[in-house]
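We were asked to recover a plausible sequence for a given structure. The inputs and outputs are reproduced exactly as logged, with field labels preserved.

PROBLEM: sequence recovery
POSITIONS: 276
GIVEN STRUCTURE:
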Protein backbone atom coordinates (compact mmCIF):
# COMPACT_ATOMS: atom_id res chain seq x y z
CA UNK A 1 0.00 0.00 0.00
CA UNK A 2 1.19 3.53 -0.72
CA UNK A 3 1.92 6.07 1.99
CA UNK A 4 -1.15 8.17 1.08
CA UNK A 5 -3.36 5.06 1.34
CA UNK A 6 -1.94 4.26 4.78
CA UNK A 7 -2.35 7.85 5.86
CA UNK A 8 -5.97 7.74 4.74
CA UNK A 9 -6.55 4.57 6.74
CA UNK A 10 -5.18 6.23 9.86
CA UNK A 11 -7.11 9.41 9.14
CA UNK A 12 -10.37 7.48 9.26
CA UNK A 13 -9.54 6.32 12.79
CA UNK A 14 -7.77 9.28 14.40
CA UNK A 15 -9.10 12.31 12.56
CA UNK A 16 -10.05 14.00 15.83
CA UNK A 17 -7.39 12.39 17.99
CA UNK A 18 -7.70 9.72 20.67
CA UNK A 19 -10.25 10.90 23.23
CA UNK A 20 -9.45 8.21 25.82
CA UNK A 21 -5.69 8.77 25.78
CA UNK A 22 -6.28 12.53 25.84
CA UNK A 23 -8.75 12.32 28.72
CA UNK A 24 -6.40 10.18 30.83
CA UNK A 25 -3.42 12.45 30.17
CA UNK A 26 -1.14 9.54 29.28
CA UNK A 27 -0.09 10.55 25.78
CA UNK A 28 3.52 11.41 26.63
CA UNK A 29 4.19 8.25 28.64
CA UNK A 30 6.84 6.01 27.06
CA UNK A 31 5.73 2.54 26.08
CA UNK A 32 6.32 -0.63 24.11
CA UNK A 33 3.94 -2.45 21.79
CA UNK A 34 4.39 -5.94 20.42
CA UNK A 35 2.35 -8.01 17.96
CA UNK A 36 2.38 -11.80 17.79
CA UNK A 37 0.52 -14.43 15.80
CA UNK A 38 -2.16 -16.22 17.83
CA UNK A 39 -1.94 -19.22 15.52
CA UNK A 40 0.30 -20.44 12.72
CA UNK A 41 -0.07 -18.28 9.60
CA UNK A 42 1.57 -16.90 6.46
CA UNK A 43 2.42 -13.35 7.48
CA UNK A 44 1.61 -10.30 5.38
CA UNK A 45 1.05 -6.58 5.95
CA UNK A 46 3.79 -6.18 8.54
CA UNK A 47 5.64 -3.55 6.49
CA UNK A 48 2.49 -1.42 6.25
CA UNK A 49 1.86 -1.82 9.98
CA UNK A 50 5.42 -0.75 10.77
CA UNK A 51 5.14 2.24 8.44
CA UNK A 52 1.98 3.45 10.17
CA UNK A 53 3.52 3.16 13.63
CA UNK A 54 6.72 4.88 12.53
CA UNK A 55 4.68 7.71 11.03
CA UNK A 56 3.09 8.24 14.43
CA UNK A 57 6.43 8.67 16.19
CA UNK A 58 7.20 5.08 17.17
CA UNK A 59 10.58 3.43 16.72
CA UNK A 60 10.41 -0.05 15.19
CA UNK A 61 12.55 -2.45 17.23
CA UNK A 62 11.64 -5.67 15.45
CA UNK A 63 9.85 -6.53 12.23
CA UNK A 64 9.39 -9.82 10.43
CA UNK A 65 8.75 -9.76 6.68
CA UNK A 66 5.73 -10.57 4.57
CA UNK A 67 5.68 -14.03 3.04
CA UNK A 68 7.18 -15.96 5.95
CA UNK A 69 5.40 -18.68 7.89
CA UNK A 70 5.18 -17.91 11.59
CA UNK A 71 4.20 -20.17 14.48
CA UNK A 72 1.61 -19.52 17.16
CA UNK A 73 2.81 -16.88 19.67
CA UNK A 74 5.72 -15.87 17.45
CA UNK A 75 6.62 -12.17 17.51
CA UNK A 76 6.03 -10.38 14.22
CA UNK A 77 6.39 -6.67 15.07
CA UNK A 78 7.52 -4.54 18.00
CA UNK A 79 7.96 -0.81 18.57
CA UNK A 80 8.59 1.76 21.27
CA UNK A 81 7.32 5.29 21.55
CA UNK A 82 4.93 7.67 23.31
CA UNK A 83 1.61 6.17 24.37
CA UNK A 84 -0.29 8.56 22.12
CA UNK A 85 1.44 7.22 18.99
CA UNK A 86 1.23 3.59 20.05
CA UNK A 87 -2.49 3.83 20.79
CA UNK A 88 -3.15 5.80 17.60
CA UNK A 89 -1.55 3.12 15.43
CA UNK A 90 -2.45 0.01 17.42
CA UNK A 91 -5.74 -1.06 15.83
CA UNK A 92 -5.02 -0.11 12.25
CA UNK A 93 -1.64 -1.88 12.34
CA UNK A 94 -3.30 -4.95 13.82
CA UNK A 95 -6.17 -4.85 11.32
CA UNK A 96 -3.88 -4.61 8.28
CA UNK A 97 -1.81 -7.60 9.40
CA UNK A 98 -4.84 -9.69 10.32
CA UNK A 99 -6.57 -9.05 7.00
CA UNK A 100 -3.51 -9.54 4.83
CA UNK A 101 -2.31 -12.61 6.72
CA UNK A 102 -5.72 -14.21 6.28
CA UNK A 103 -5.51 -13.75 2.51
CA UNK A 104 -1.88 -14.90 2.37
CA UNK A 105 -2.53 -18.00 4.46
CA UNK A 106 -5.49 -19.09 2.34
CA UNK A 107 -3.48 -18.47 -0.84
CA UNK A 108 -0.63 -20.57 0.54
CA UNK A 109 -3.03 -23.42 1.34
CA UNK A 110 -4.33 -23.47 -2.25
CA UNK A 111 -0.80 -23.36 -3.66
CA UNK A 112 0.21 -26.28 -1.46
CA UNK A 113 -2.83 -28.32 -2.50
CA UNK A 114 -2.19 -27.56 -6.19
CA UNK A 115 1.05 -29.53 -5.94
CA UNK A 116 3.10 -27.53 -8.42
CA UNK A 117 0.34 -26.41 -10.79
CA UNK A 118 0.48 -22.56 -10.94
CA UNK A 119 -2.26 -20.78 -9.03
CA UNK A 120 -3.35 -17.30 -10.06
CA UNK A 121 -5.69 -14.87 -8.33
CA UNK A 122 -8.33 -12.80 -10.08
CA UNK A 123 -8.93 -9.07 -9.83
CA UNK A 124 -12.10 -9.72 -7.80
CA UNK A 125 -10.69 -8.57 -4.48
CA UNK A 126 -12.82 -6.86 -1.84
CA UNK A 127 -13.48 -3.30 -3.05
CA UNK A 128 -10.85 -0.73 -2.00
CA UNK A 129 -8.38 -3.45 -0.87
CA UNK A 130 -6.75 -4.43 -4.17
CA UNK A 131 -3.18 -3.35 -3.45
CA UNK A 132 -3.04 -5.07 -0.07
CA UNK A 133 -5.02 -8.10 -1.27
CA UNK A 134 -2.72 -8.69 -4.23
CA UNK A 135 0.38 -8.25 -2.08
CA UNK A 136 -1.06 -10.85 0.30
CA UNK A 137 -1.87 -13.26 -2.52
CA UNK A 138 1.69 -12.97 -3.82
CA UNK A 139 2.98 -13.55 -0.28
CA UNK A 140 0.95 -16.74 -0.32
CA UNK A 141 2.74 -17.96 -3.43
CA UNK A 142 0.17 -17.22 -6.14
CA UNK A 143 0.57 -15.09 -9.23
CA UNK A 144 -1.82 -12.47 -10.60
CA UNK A 145 -4.20 -13.46 -13.39
CA UNK A 146 -5.32 -9.98 -14.45
CA UNK A 147 -4.59 -6.62 -12.87
CA UNK A 148 -7.41 -5.04 -14.83
CA UNK A 149 -9.30 -5.00 -18.10
CA UNK A 150 -6.36 -3.31 -19.81
CA UNK A 151 -3.71 -5.99 -19.51
CA UNK A 152 -5.15 -9.13 -21.11
CA UNK A 153 -7.49 -10.14 -23.90
CA UNK A 154 -10.17 -12.32 -22.37
CA UNK A 155 -13.17 -13.09 -24.59
CA UNK A 156 -16.24 -13.88 -22.54
CA UNK A 157 -19.57 -15.10 -23.92
CA UNK A 158 -20.86 -11.68 -22.94
CA UNK A 159 -18.51 -10.07 -25.47
CA UNK A 160 -19.87 -12.24 -28.24
CA UNK A 161 -23.38 -10.92 -27.56
CA UNK A 162 -22.22 -7.69 -29.22
CA UNK A 163 -19.79 -9.09 -31.81
CA UNK A 164 -21.18 -9.65 -35.29
CA UNK A 165 -19.04 -12.69 -36.14
CA UNK A 166 -18.48 -15.99 -34.35
CA UNK A 167 -15.78 -16.98 -31.87
CA UNK A 168 -13.15 -17.81 -34.50
CA UNK A 169 -13.54 -14.37 -36.04
CA UNK A 170 -13.43 -12.74 -32.60
CA UNK A 171 -10.15 -14.49 -31.77
CA UNK A 172 -8.64 -13.47 -35.11
CA UNK A 173 -9.84 -9.89 -34.74
CA UNK A 174 -8.43 -9.56 -31.24
CA UNK A 175 -5.10 -11.04 -32.34
CA UNK A 176 -4.82 -8.57 -35.23
CA UNK A 177 -5.52 -5.68 -32.84
CA UNK A 178 -2.91 -6.75 -30.27
CA UNK A 179 -0.65 -9.35 -31.89
CA UNK A 180 1.78 -9.40 -28.97
CA UNK A 181 -0.92 -10.53 -26.52
CA UNK A 182 -2.26 -14.00 -25.85
CA UNK A 183 -5.97 -14.42 -26.51
CA UNK A 184 -7.89 -16.14 -23.74
CA UNK A 185 -11.42 -17.46 -24.12
CA UNK A 186 -13.79 -18.32 -21.29
CA UNK A 187 -16.01 -21.36 -21.88
CA UNK A 188 -18.92 -22.78 -19.92
CA UNK A 189 -19.48 -26.21 -21.52
CA UNK A 190 -17.67 -28.96 -23.42
CA UNK A 191 -18.90 -27.85 -26.83
CA UNK A 192 -17.42 -24.40 -26.20
CA UNK A 193 -14.09 -25.99 -25.24
CA UNK A 194 -13.82 -27.60 -28.66
CA UNK A 195 -14.97 -24.43 -30.39
CA UNK A 196 -12.36 -22.33 -28.58
CA UNK A 197 -9.61 -24.78 -29.47
CA UNK A 198 -10.59 -24.72 -33.17
CA UNK A 199 -10.79 -20.92 -33.03
CA UNK A 200 -7.10 -20.78 -32.11
CA UNK A 201 -7.40 -19.56 -28.51
CA UNK A 202 -4.10 -19.39 -26.63
CA UNK A 203 -5.76 -20.10 -23.29
CA UNK A 204 -9.11 -21.76 -22.67
CA UNK A 205 -10.54 -20.83 -19.29
CA UNK A 206 -13.03 -23.33 -17.92
CA UNK A 207 -15.69 -21.49 -15.92
CA UNK A 208 -17.12 -23.46 -13.00
CA UNK A 209 -16.20 -26.87 -14.40
CA UNK A 210 -16.01 -29.68 -11.86
CA UNK A 211 -12.66 -31.52 -11.66
CA UNK A 212 -14.23 -34.38 -13.64
CA UNK A 213 -15.49 -32.02 -16.34
CA UNK A 214 -12.10 -30.29 -16.43
CA UNK A 215 -10.41 -33.64 -17.03
CA UNK A 216 -12.82 -34.30 -19.92
CA UNK A 217 -11.99 -30.88 -21.40
CA UNK A 218 -8.26 -31.54 -21.15
CA UNK A 219 -8.67 -34.84 -22.99
CA UNK A 220 -10.78 -33.21 -25.71
CA UNK A 221 -8.22 -30.56 -26.66
CA UNK A 222 -5.50 -31.23 -29.22
CA UNK A 223 -2.49 -29.10 -28.44
CA UNK A 224 -0.65 -27.19 -31.15
CA UNK A 225 3.09 -27.48 -31.67
CA UNK A 226 3.72 -24.68 -29.15
CA UNK A 227 1.72 -26.51 -26.47
CA UNK A 228 -1.30 -24.24 -26.78
CA UNK A 229 -4.07 -23.88 -25.95
CA UNK A 230 -3.30 -23.95 -22.27
CA UNK A 231 -6.18 -24.98 -20.03
CA UNK A 232 -7.05 -22.84 -17.02
CA UNK A 233 -9.80 -23.66 -14.57
CA UNK A 234 -11.66 -20.89 -12.75
CA UNK A 235 -14.69 -20.48 -10.57
CA UNK A 236 -14.82 -22.31 -7.26
CA UNK A 237 -11.15 -23.30 -6.97
CA UNK A 238 -10.14 -23.55 -3.31
CA UNK A 239 -7.84 -25.41 -0.95
CA UNK A 240 -10.28 -28.31 -0.70
CA UNK A 241 -10.48 -29.09 -4.44
CA UNK A 242 -7.19 -27.78 -5.86
CA UNK A 243 -5.60 -31.23 -5.70
CA UNK A 244 -8.46 -32.68 -7.75
CA UNK A 245 -8.05 -29.98 -10.40
CA UNK A 246 -4.31 -30.64 -10.50
CA UNK A 247 -5.03 -34.34 -11.07
CA UNK A 248 -7.40 -33.36 -13.91
CA UNK A 249 -4.42 -32.11 -15.89
CA UNK A 250 -5.13 -28.38 -16.11
CA UNK A 251 -2.21 -26.04 -16.74
CA UNK A 252 -3.19 -23.41 -14.19
CA UNK A 253 -5.89 -22.54 -11.67
CA UNK A 254 -7.56 -19.16 -11.31
CA UNK A 255 -9.20 -18.32 -8.00
CA UNK A 256 -10.75 -15.55 -5.94
CA UNK A 257 -10.98 -17.69 -2.79
CA UNK A 258 -8.11 -16.01 -0.87
CA UNK A 259 -9.93 -12.67 -1.00
CA UNK A 260 -12.80 -13.99 1.11
CA UNK A 261 -10.53 -15.57 3.72
CA UNK A 262 -11.21 -14.87 7.38
CA UNK A 263 -8.74 -12.43 8.99
CA UNK A 264 -6.32 -14.23 11.30
CA UNK A 265 -5.80 -13.07 14.87
CA UNK A 266 -2.74 -11.05 15.78
CA UNK A 267 -2.36 -10.50 19.53
CA UNK A 268 -1.15 -7.18 20.92
CA UNK A 269 0.71 -6.44 24.15
CA UNK A 270 1.22 -2.90 25.44
CA UNK A 271 3.71 -2.15 28.23
CA UNK A 272 4.98 0.88 30.10
CA UNK A 273 8.62 1.64 29.33
CA UNK A 274 11.19 3.24 31.61
CA UNK A 275 11.56 6.96 31.12
CA UNK A 276 14.84 7.96 29.56
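RECOVERED SEQUENCE:
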Amino acid sequence: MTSPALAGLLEDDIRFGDLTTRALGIGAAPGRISFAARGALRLCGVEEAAQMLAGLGAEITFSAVSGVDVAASELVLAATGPACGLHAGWKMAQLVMEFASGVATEAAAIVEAAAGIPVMVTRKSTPFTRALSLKAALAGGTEIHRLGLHDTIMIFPEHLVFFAGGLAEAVATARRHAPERAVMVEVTDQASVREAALAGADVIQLEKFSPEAAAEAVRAVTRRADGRPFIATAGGVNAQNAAAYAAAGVDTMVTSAPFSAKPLDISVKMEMAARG
